[in-house]
Specification:
There is one protein chain. Helix content is 40%, strand content 16%. By secondary structure, it is an alpha/beta fold. The strands form 2 sheets. Strands 3-2-1-4-5-6-7 form a 7-stranded parallel beta sheet, sandwiched between helices. A 6-stranded parallel beta sheet has the order 10-9-8-11-12-13, with helices on both faces. Strand 6, helix 4 and strand 7 form a beta-alpha-beta unit. Helix 1 crosses helix 13 and helix 6 packs across helix 11. The protein starts with 10 loop residues before the first strand and ends with a helix.
Length: 346
C-alpha cells in the first residue's frame, strides 16, 4: 500500500512491540483500512509491507505540523509525550482495552493524554476520565464463510463429525484447561466430537500445555483433542471457516476478537460473561452462548447443550455473520476513529 508523503501524514499509530499480541494485531488490521480515508502510518519494529509505515527514527524529522499520535501501550504514551516535549506538535490519543485498575504510573500517563478511547464499557470504567467507547471490528472480507466447507475440512485434515476450535496463545489466562476439563467429561460419550487448539506456548507456559496433553493421553483422548501449535494466519482463518463451534474460555481478555472472527465465518461461539467484550459480541441463543467465567462446570454444561443440539447449532450458523456485519465490521471501527482524529486535528 502506498505510504503518504511526509507532509501528508496526519496520524501516526505506533506499535513498539515486535511479538504478536492483540494490540499489534489491531494496528496491522486497522491502519490499512484507515489509510483509505486519512493520511495515517504505523511505526515500530517488524511491520509488514502491506501496512503503511515509516521507520521509527524518521518520526522526529517529519515536516513540522499538527499530527495525532495514537498510542495503545504505556511505552507509546511515553514516546508521544517525549516527542511533544522536544517541541513537536502532537495531539495524544490513547486507546485502552484493559479491564483492571491501572498502576499509578499508567494513571499519570493517561491524565496527560488529550483524548481517550475505550474498547468496552468495562475498560472505560477504569479510566476515571471521559472516553469514547469504540469496540473493535474485523475485516469481514477476510473472515467469511467458506464456499465449500466440506472440501475445506478435508484439505485441512479435520475429522468427520463435530469439530470444536479454540485458538490463541496457550496459557492459563486463556483457559484451555477449562475446555480440557469439559472434554474429559463430555467426549467419552460423544465419539464424533473433536477439539483442535492452535497457538504457541512460550517457554514459561510449556509445562501448562504438557500437563493438559498428559491428562488427555491418560483418558485416551489424544487423537480427539489435538494441539496444532502456532499455525500460519491464513490457515487459522480456514479453521474458523471449517469448524462447527468456537470456544473462548479465557479468564481475562482486553477485548477478545476471536469470537467475532469465528462468527463472521458463520461459526457460533461459546465464551464467558464479563470477560473482554464477549457479552457485547455474542447474542445468546442466536449466535452462541455465554457461561460463568473460570468455571469448568459451567463451561461443560454450556458445551453439552450446544453439541447435543445440532439443529440449534446449525440455526445459529445462519445468523452469526449478519450480526458481525451489523455491529463489528472494521470499517465501522475505522470510521469512528477517523472522526476523532479529524476533531483533534481541527
Amino acid at each position: 500500500m502506498q505510504i503518504p508523503k511526509p507532509d501528508q501524514i496526519d496520524v501516526i499509530a505506533p506499535n513498539l512491540r515486535h511479538r504478536l499480541s492483540g494490540v499489534t494485531t489491531t494496528v496491522l488490521r486497522l491502519v490499512p483500512v484507515q489509510a483509505r480515508d486519512i493520511g495515517i502510518v504505523a511505526t515500530g519494529p517488524g511491520l509488514p509491507p502491506e501496512v503503511p509505515h515509516i521507520p521509527l527514527w524518521r518520526v522526529p524529522f517529519l515536516p513540522r505540523r499538527l499530527r495525532v499520535w495514537h498510542a495503545r501501550r504505556n511505552t507509546e504514551m511515553v514516546l508521544g509525550l517525549m516527542l511533544r516535549a522536544i517541541g513537536l506538535r502532537y495531539k495524544l490519543l490513547f486507546t485502552s482495552a484493559a479491564q483492571r485498575d491501572h498502576s499509578g504510573f499508567t494513571k499519570g500517563l493517561i491524565r496527560r493524554m488529550d483524548r481517550l478511547v475505550a474498547t468496552s464499557p468495562q475498560a472505560a470504567s477504569y479510566l476515571k476520565r471521559e472516553a469514547e467507547m469504540i469496540m473493535h471490528g474485523i475485516d469481514t472480507e477476510v473472515f467469511r464463510p467458506a464456499s465449500d466447507r466440506d472440501a475445506l475440512r478435508t484439505a485441512l485434515g479435520l475429522p468427520q463429525g463435530l469439530v470444536i476450535g479454540c485458538f490463541g496463545r496457550i496459557r492459563h489466562q486463556k483457559g484451555q484447561d477449562l475446555l480440557v476439563e469439559a472434554a474429559l467429561e463430555l467426549l467419552p460419550s460423544r465419539p464424533d466430537a473433536h477439539i483442535v487448539f492452535t497457538g504457541r506456548a512460550t517457554a514459561e507456559h510449556e509445562a501448562y500445555q504438557r500437563d493438559l496433553e498428559e491428562r488427555l493421553a491418560a483418558a485416551g483422548l489424544s487423537d480427539r483433542v489435538r494441539f496444532l501449535g502456532e499455525r500460519p494466519w491464513e490457515e487459522v482463518v480456514q479453521l474458523y471457516q471449517a469448524i462447527d463451534l468456537f470456544v473462548a474460555p479465557a479468564r481475562w481478555e482486553g477485548f477478545g476478537l476471536t469470537p467475532i472472527e469465528a462468527m463472521a465465518c458463520g461459526t457460533p461461539a461459546l465464551a464467558c460473561h464479563g470477560v473482554g467484550a464477549f457479552d457485547a459480541q455474542i447474542l445468546p441463543g442466536e449466535t452462541g452462548m455465554l457461561c460463568a467465567p473460570d468455571d469448568a462446570k459451567a463451561l461443560t454444561e454450556a458445551l453439552r447443550i450446544l453439541i447435543d443440539d445440532r439443529e440449534a447449532l446449525a440455526t445459529m450458523r445462519e445468523t452469526c455473520r449478519a450480526h458481525v456485519l451489523r455491529d463489528f465490521s472494521i470499517a465501522r471501527e475505522a470510521a469512528a476513529l477517523i472522526a476523532i482524529y479529524r476533531e483533534m486535528l481541527a
